Amino acid sequence: MNIVTLDEVRRHLRYPANDTQDDAAIQLHIEAADDVMRKECGDHVPHEYLETYDGGDNAIYLNHKPVLSVELVEEGWGWANYDLDYVQVNTPGSVSMFAYSIDSSQTGMITRRTAGNINIAFFPGIANIKVLYTAGRDPIPPVIKLASLELIAHWWQNSQQRANMVATSSSFDAVNQDFPRSGATIYTPINQGVPYRILEMLKPFRSEPIIG
Predict the structure, then answer these.
(1) What is the spatial distance between Cα 54 and Cα 43, in angstroms, rounded to a whole number?
(2) What is the reported pTM?
(3) Residue 67 belongs to a domain
């Protein structure tokens, strides 16, 4: 799954319904936009992960976030494995000696707990803590879907602009007119990164603050 579908992007770009010759290229833009959104804000499309971590610390931090749910936390003691029980943070009355809590879904922080909800260390070991969990957002926030559509449109329109700028021997560079160009196609240094306006749209969900 992607954050936005091919049909959603085609409608956003106002493509004719029967014009499908660019579908493969548009899908590539969709995949690239997903990578950008994941880097800026973490996982969006819910996905299940199975990962292992070293024991010995009071908490582990999952690789993907935000965390939607945790299906399994297994602690290896060398000769036996224990499935830990989920308890809420600082909830009184917990009696399980083998428990864990999800302290922060945004940072992926999971803490080892024992009877009385006391924080203790995971049993020491190398890759002896196994976690099965789902990360992402459900539903995907509309502003993230819109930001993804706008980023794809930005890239697509710039790529089409470059492709349509045919030069002759007497033409000039579209950006720097001091240098005449010749050949089949003009290359212009159009920004292919992430426009600031799109980063502003993502600000409530970004894992790193905008500087400036």
Answers:
(1) 23
(2) 0.76
(3) yes
